[in-house]
Structures
1.
Amino acid sequence: MNVLITGGSGFIGSHITDQCIEQGYKVRILDIKEPHRSDVEFIEGSVVDRFLLKKSMQEIDYVYHLAAISNIDHVKSKPIETIEYNVMGTAYILEEAIKTQVKRFFLASSVFLYEKSGHLYTSSKEYSEILCNNYKSLYDIPYTILRFGTVYGARSRQVDVISIFVSNALKGEKLIIRNNGTQKRNFIYVEDLAMGSVLAMKTNKSLNKVLTISNEKSISIIELSSIVNEIFNNKLEIQIIKEKKRHDDYVGNILNISETFSILNWKPQIDIKEGILRYINWYKEYIK
């Protein structure tokens, strides 16, 4: 079976690529940067380049669409580009899926949709989910929506809170918490997320469903800082900087995760402490 992964050179995409290869699938990647491994077919370019999309979709059975502008700060500074890339990019791929009759289209979405938080980024994912439903109704394009929790681990972009905490801890610097630290996230280690995402391809029970690929338990940022501090023998200083709470900040409510676990016969296996330790080992080897 042939799998196209848009954004397959990125943090999450590279791990889904690994898992697909391990499961025996042939992978093609469409991305603006080269992949981390050489045993895949690579097409360099953007999902809004319709000529490249047509080329990328030839003889493809499954599509994982991960390419998107996801950094919240970039989204805020580039709203039109975000809409074009995140929403129209999804529409362009679905349009090609009609012609190539793919077996399934997988959309990378976000648990932020459960609370409508995350401003324009979340809206772009919501519109993309609506497009999946519309293309199924109008053109019978099968889909599965994967709502990801907060992902961390090896090859991360180093802008998430776990990456920042680990970087500061290794330098002996303070762990700085903004607001009051009660904001929560459903953290999931990237290898767990990749496993859950690929398992969705292996069962028809996930057909035309919304799945939540995340840990069930949410953890507050202040709890997270304590876990990191414990790993570093409680030698770190934790500083809370009081700021006005963001009106659209995510607070950790997810709905159908038990249904996801049942459909996939799977749960994340790596707890937060083990995941952070794995990330630290990777960071020391590849970043330092």
2.
Amino acid sequence: MTNRREFLKDLAGATTGIFFASCGLASAAESIQPAATARREIAIGGRRLRTIDVHAHCVVDIRDLVKAYYDAHPIQSNASGGFVADPFADMKRPMFMNPSSVEARLRYMDQRGIDMQAVSLLPGYNYSYWADRELASEIVQRQNEQITQLCADHTDRFVGLGAVAIQHPELAVQQMEYAVKKLNLRGFEVGGSINGEELSAQRFNPFWAKAEELGILIFIHPDSFIEGARRFQGNGVLDNVIGNPLETTVALSHLIFEGTLDRYPGVKICAAHGGGYLGSYSGRADHCAEASPFCKPVKKRPSEYFKQQIYCDSLVFTAEGIRHLVAEFGADRILFGTDYPASMSSNRMGDDRGVDTILGVSELSDFQKADILGRNAAQLLGIKS
């Protein structure tokens, strides 16, 4: 493979029709942004703070690579009771491929006091865990190269969390090595399970070993809890409201109880949506580990993994929810996240308040707010002052 400098040079002169500005929800963002926006700067305790959103998505166009698969699987059941006949609906929004989508994204960030985003893929078809080794290699290469280009074009605003074909662990290890050392990606996003397999499955050990070796962040972002699809039908978008945090809860619980985090104590995980339900009920897991003969021994109380290896984002929507996460795990374990651009999409499940979500938690000290809004992420992602 070429090195990063050669890759970016070649890419800049290419005329392949691939637009790196696709990382953004421009159709919605453009409609609510003014022509120009003064950048909102955040100061805490009289000192300027760089704010970093660790939960911010993009879409890379892979339609040409996956068309044959979706032609053979034209309709997919939706857990909410509907059907998704076109998995590429988001890609067909008129501004997705327009370079102005990046400008719209930056204006959105400027309005809400967000200095940087750690950009990751929008879950769903972007994961493509069904793909065989050859196709998975092509998909991940395109995704990571486009995220890299976005970050290279705006080094002061974006860092990348790349894709990885974790369904092929040996390939994943190669992709991780290249993406970190050649493309300067700061970590990787994975789903809460892989084709029905838990992330704690033995065959994924090479992935966790490489993550520990590279010292990078693994962002676990669920794509609902597919086993609950029948019961999630009906009103309430329950596949998202309940399914997403449930998937994360199950994934983390297996990583703890199956010993994955004991085998790889240097692994660093950020779990989306406040880490699922463990933040509210980790005491039950602790009790099982301490008192029940049906819980396998682990090296620490389950809640302690949140104080050493697991982080979570702040996407719990209420000041009390954030206060509780801090009380349970500490402000040094919480990372600011908005779920951009979900606040502008049809399900409206992102947090559109930007930094005000954290600034408005009166129970937090200035030091704690600064940790959550940027300092924790800067340390984890290797973002220098």
3.
Amino acid sequence: MIINIQKSEDTDNAARQFSKEVLSSPALSPDTPRVVAFYGKMGAGKTTFIKSLCKVLGSDDVVTSPTFAIVNEYTDGKGKPIYHFDFYRIKNITEVYDMGYEDYFYSGNLCLIEWPELIEDLLPEEALHVNITAREDDSRVLEIIETRH
């Protein structure tokens, strides 16, 4: 599946489409890890898309990149946690073990991950892999590139 975001004003609509067509799929049922790994270069729009996605899911929280905290927790419109990870600054995989990543990834709650390539071996098998690419005209392409079962 591919979602095109022509201009920044379209990000909320893209997040609505992603939520409706992807997050409501049986592959991300509460019985399986609900982990979405967002790949993309610096400035591709990972955090911007995650902000819109949290808004679409009913969160009133201020969504910011957890670059230094590694994980931020938000609440969706139904009172359920959304975990937002940014692994850009991890220096050693033991940091991820020490933070108790399994408690988050296997909680049944939505986990949105930036820079997942740095912890690739720790991602649940059922994780959804999404690539965000910025084009020269400032549009973005959101592509679901892999779902492993």
4.
Amino acid sequence: MNKKIFIAYSGGLDSHVLLRLLVQVRKVNPKLQLTAIHVNHNLSSNAKRWTEHCKKICRELRVACIVKNVNAKIKIKDHSPEEIARKLRYETFAETLPKNSVLVTAHQANDQAETLLLQLFRGAGPKGLAAMPLKIKFAKGWLVRPLLDFSREELLQYAKVQKLNWIEDESNTDTKFDRNLIRHKLMPIIKKNWPGIITTLNRVANHCAAASELLENLAAEDLADVISAKDTINIEVLKKLSSARQDNVLRFWLRTLHLSTPSEVKLHEVIRTVVNSRSDASPMVGWQGTEIRRFQNHLYAMPPLLPHDKRKVLRFNFKRPLKLPADLGVLRAKVNKKFVASAKNKIFTVRFRQGGEKLKIAKRLGTHQLKKLMQEWQIPPWLRDRIPLIYCGAEIVAVVGYYSVAGLLTTILNNPSSRKILA
């Protein structure tokens, strides 16, 4: 067992039971270091009182307590208040946890059943219906849910026997939230006819988790066949797969790139308008956080490209890194003494393609149009105006990532929007 355990502690019934159980474990394992993390979302007028309650309980149990404040009243497009609060809460946990630590949460069997129904109503596949795993990698360590095999009723019984004092969040009874609607309206009706429904739904979640694992393994095998240089997908190889396997491997590919996965409608749009487009077309399908484009016979996935003013001219001093506009990354360059001597008294700038540029290429006669060189280098069209060009006076001495004169070495760092192209 990891000696440092962090508990997601709201002060409610479930997290209080979890905290108390871990304190009992510490009695037989004194080296166990427990730290509670309480996130104040600042949504309730009682929030400060709940924070003081959590700090008081932790003092009584001799457990370190970290309190973090977030503003969950902010609005994010296409996110419910529940989703926003959850997002901020887990971001806070991730920022707080040290390396190789374990975060434990108090999710129990009823939570698992409710999550499965929520995902079912949203039209989720096996991965979504697998609901919450017992243990997953999280931030720099792990997230563990040790109470998933216990029902809310069992935790309540334990809390009453132990005479625990917990808080009741009034929002937990507000049925305008989807989970509360399921918990307080739908579940009581279902339980009348199927008393063991919580156990049954948890069993369904386990079946879906097993199915999801098999699909992940198949996707990993298929990805090894369809993946090309720079994490792109070879379309001709992809088309040899069945439609179901195409869907499966594309979702898996996006997850490996840490990009958001699409809805079924969007995924089918990708297949129809991007995968099955003409080889000389440059279609794009996008959704929140992700764009998929086609160039020649390959699929490219990336975060949405930011607006970019290609007319910008930036002074460049080789001694310091240069932050590029439109999230294109940080430019660094190394030069040898011979190159510096040949460029004495000349100004170095970074610019972007306007059209009509020409440059000389070592060991090739004459000058060459940059447009044709970019075609030769197979640079995707949407990136051609975003490739940094280093000028020495009026002469191009580097096309970053593709060409530079002798004695000049360029690199791009922290380049999310085109990292697979310029790196």
